[in-house]
Design brief:
Blueprint: E1 10-13, H1 19-30, E2 34-39, H2 42-53, E3 59-63, H3 69-82, E4 88-91, H4 106-134, E5 137-142, H5 155-175, E6 180-187, H6 193-206, H7 210-219, H8 229-239, E7 251-254
Parallel strand pairs: 1-2, 1-4, 2-3, 4-5, 5-6, 6-7
Helix pairs in contact: 1-8, 3-4, 4-5, 6-7
């Protein structure tokens, strides 16, 4: 069986208080990793840590806003002080507002840039020196299928998420010979709070019910259903494991066949 043991490895997961971030943190913890969970929501973050503690995971929770460079620096510093040098980074940020391209103004662009894009290179810049010295590292960014196949009314996501892939691919080539892998996971429609929020925004614009929007989306998938967060998290955890040591520079869609392109 491929080695997916992460005992003695330290993982930092942002956006980890719920949804895909929490599912990823749980999957890593079940493989033995010591996990630092981070999120802006202190109450949700505390509850998430309590759940992981119940499965005997070695965890800590550190509130931080990924849009703030100073808070990211403190996050990395506190994680290493508490758990040890960071071996694994799962970079997970928020989603930008739902809005068509023709309606975007400068404030929309400035608001989305640090939330969707900038936090990824900022975090990588903070954790990479140690990973390169130790000649081991796993970086996985939770992105979106919108980076490969634009989604109507998600103009900000359709713009910035491909930029994340461009950065990660370039970085992967630079550090591949040093034992550090860099990949992205592209979730399709997944049963998360964020997905419900997106459906609510689209429903409001179109004047229909949220259930109607969700039903229409599900009918577009070959599997005729949304993914469970755990299904995405298992792919993330695999990419963080020794079993994926020869996988780098990839954008792995976990979308039930939604993206129609060959690449």
């Amino acid at each position: 069986m491929p080695n997916q043991d992460l005992s003695d490895r330290v993982a930092l997961v942002t956006g980890a208080s719920s949804g895909l971030g929490f599912a990823a943190a749980t999957a890593l913890a079940r493989r033995g990793a010591r996990v630092a969970l981070s999120s802006r929501n202190r109450d949700k973050l505390r509850r998430a840590e309590e759940i992981l503690d119940a499965i005997a995971a070695d965890t800590c929770s550190i509130p931080a806003d990924v849009r703030s460079p100073g808070q990211l620096e403190e996050l990395v510093s506190r994680t290493e002080e508490t758990l040890g040098p960071i071996d694994i980074l799962v970079a997970n940020g928020g989603g930008p507002k739902v809005k068509p391209a023709a309606e975007l103004d400068d404030d929309d662009w400035h608001e989305a840039l640090p939330l969707v894009f900038l936090f990824v290179p900022r975090l990588c810049r903070l954790v990479l020196p140690g990973m390169r010295r130790r000649r081991f590292g796993r970086i996985v960014a939770i992105n979106s299928v919108s980076s490969k196949q634009p989604i109507p009314d998600l103009a900000l996501s359709n713009t910035f998420r491909p930029a994340v892939l461009g950065y990660l691919k370039t970085l992967a080539l630079e550090v591949a010979s040093e034992g550090v892998t860099v990949n992205a996971v592209l979730p399709g429609y997944t049963k998360t709070t964020r997905q419900i929020e997106l459906a609510e925004g689209i429903a409001k614009q179109r004047g229909v019910s949220v259930d109607e929007v969700i039903g229409e989306r599900a009918s577009e998938f070959p599997m005729r259903r949304m993914a469970e967060p755990e299904e995405v998290a298992e792919v993330i955890a695999f990419l963080c494991s020794p079993a994926a040591s020869y996988v780098t520079g990839q954008a792995v869609a976990v979308d039930g066949g939604y993206v129609g392109s060959l690449l």
